């Protein structure tokens, strides 16, 4: 039966981890193919066959995922114990290299030496020493040399996979990838240790795993084929990050198993047909639908680049309600659709936190935590001020009290005898908040009231920013950023907090890989995104190839068309039942012709919005 088309896949995978014969493998698992389900099922089989032996030998199974969310999902589904080391690649590498501090230091300093040498060569090639380029290069050399002097004094390096790693002895995320790769490749003993410690290593989203690390893992398997079973799980069509291995399929040894899941359990038939047409330009692979899959709906809307975007997007949702057979959940007020954009600023503009985004998105201190919603200074807003203001408006006194119990110094050291009087005091102070309008009151005004009444502890960085009068160019950029941000209305903080905590309809094209939604609206707007990695205007043949693309095409290398096509595949396959694409373009007629010529859409599935 068609519903059991992938049963043979599971049998092959089980054979690869059996007691009698072990074999490394690459599982090609396309969109909606039940990849995580298969991975969890395989892990349970490994536990059945090898659990007791590995536990007695104090060895583990390594499962490497791409995100913390994926790690949590696997743990939740499998209820796995200490037998499995389930982590992101950065966490895994740090656990591996952390004990070898001298080697970390050597490789780090060697990397700095190479960077310094590169910049010196660039400087020496410049004939005119009075140019800005020459002076900037001199500055880079000076900064690198200062960093080297500082790092030479360090005895122990640290790293936090979920933080921004700003202390002098911290390694950043790229350092971990580079040093981890070099240590594994340079030291056969470390490769042997890994093969002994983790006789099974399964790598999810392998198409986006750093290409050098993929080679390093290949090398472990090559050195210890009998003791180390390596399993790659992924989909070439969904490679959207630049450091993934472009030719991973051709790199797989012929002796490996290469099963391919064919069933798409997620999407309705029309969406799968669209995905298969897009896949013709990537790897030619096709998926089939469930027997009981619905017909599904797809539609392409094309609007001029200068169109009124809020009005256009509202119109598209209204039209989709009718196109998808009266599905009223397409009405934006129902908040039952997912709207995908090319980059975060597009969401910031639509949700109303564009000034907040422009201030913080480029600050080095927050390079990771800003878009993860993990800026430590935001806690006073996310955990205290914003929910408190909301509860006060709703007159939910118990909830307000709970916030104060968790966060306020006023109740931390209160004795039973004065508890009631303290509560009365807080209640009086909070009366002023009833009149606060987050659209009008600035963060600074709110925090000044908080500080004056000692309601909550204000983070040191924000406190410094509030006290800062004259801005000096030498001042910490993060303090300057907070000084600017404190003049924004609280509504921008609320909008940002809702976005990063997934309480809105918006997400990025890249950020939803692995997720699924009943209704998806893909917004395509190269002009608003202002990126250079992806270009839909070129993909739809509205614009010609760039000179770089032409050069890469001649040399057989990846172009922006290749990257954009894979991104289009990812976005379209997020939809379970109905999918709309809204493209803002300089030439709607040309985009329409291309969409029809490529077989992605038929005439009746395309609307040009005038």
Outline, from the CA principal axes? globular
Helix amount: 40-55%
Low-confidence stretches: none
First-last Cα distance: 47 Å
How much of the sequence lies in strands comes to: 5-15%
**Number of helix segments?**
28
Mean pLDDT rating:
89
Biggest sheet: strands, sense, closure? Answer: 6 strands, parallel
Q: Enumerate the strands of the largest sheet in spatial order, edge to edge or round the barrel.
A: 3-2-4-5-1-6
Radius of gyration, whole Å: 27 Å
Can you walk through the features of this model?
With 610 residues, this protein is an alpha/beta fold. It has 28 helices and 14 strands. It has a six-stranded parallel sheet with strand order 3-2-4-5-1-6, with helices on both faces. Strand 2, helix 3 and strand 3 form a beta-alpha-beta unit. The chain is globular, with a radius of gyration of 27 Å. The model has no long low-confidence stretch (mean pLDDT 89).
Secondary structure elements and their pairing?
Elements: H1 7-16, E1 25-29, H2 35-56, E2 61-65, H3 68-78, E3 84-88, H4 89-97, H5 101-125, H6 132-152, H7 173-186, H8 188-197, E4 200-203, H9 211-223, E5 229-234, H10 248-251, E6 260-261, E7 263-264, H11 269-279, E8 288-289, E9 297-304, H12 309-323, E10 338-341, H13 344-351, H14 354-360, H15 369-372, H16 379-393, H17 397-407, H18 409-412, H19 419-430, H20 443-452, H21 460-467, H22 477-485, H23 490-500, E11 506-508, E12 517-524, H24 526-529, H25 536-539, H26 547-554, H27 560-572, E13 575-585, H28 588-597, E14 606-609
Parallel strand pairs: 1-5, 1-6, 2-3, 2-4, 4-5, 7-8, 9-13, 9-14, 10-11, 10-12, 12-13
Helix pairs in contact: 4-7, 5-6, 5-7, 7-9, 8-9, 11-27, 13-14, 14-22, 16-17, 21-22
